[in-house]
Amino acid sequence: MTDAFIMMLSCSAVVVALLLSQVRGFLGPSEDDNVPEEWVLLHVVQGHIGAGNYSYLRLNHDGRIILHMQSLKGDADLYVSDKTLRPSFDTYKLQSVTCGQDVVVVPGDFARPVGIGIYGHPSHKESEFEMRVFYDQTVPQDPFDKGSYTSEDGLKQKKSPQAEEEDFQEEESIFWTILIGLLKIILEILF
What we know:
The chain is an alpha+beta fold. Strands 1-8-3-6 form a four-stranded antiparallel sheet, with no helix packed on it. Strands 2-7-4-5 form a four-stranded antiparallel sheet, with no helix packed on it. The radius of gyration is 25 Å and the shape is elongated. The protein is 29% helix and 35% strand.
């Protein structure tokens, strides 16, 4: 009888361990397990977004910011820009478009406010997301280092050529707007 009792106890222990692992899997992995201690949680945003629609947020906090977004249901994608407050899949500087956890590191030298666009992918009628916003205290602020930023792996990287081209196009657009305005005034005066 003692062998049967020991066998029953060991089977019960296995069942309890299996149930605990299932409960932990149901509740989801803790987001804080892989977050360095030096990161400070600033904000948690939860929301729903319809297929093909955007939800926009504004980031005003200075410094290196890490955006961790988890699609809880459906597929929400993340677009970030320091040039527009309404970034999209056409106008963005940084993006993360995975089917699960999306992570974007916003460099400290991005102009504030930073626009954040959350897009509900059309493959799902509705997407539900949770985004955690972290501040990285480990990155020293260097006001003279405007042309590059430190990536997640610690290597210096230059801003993308696309971002530099957008800056040039924006300056060129302002020039043409002013020139056309002056030409209209001259034509009104002459005719």
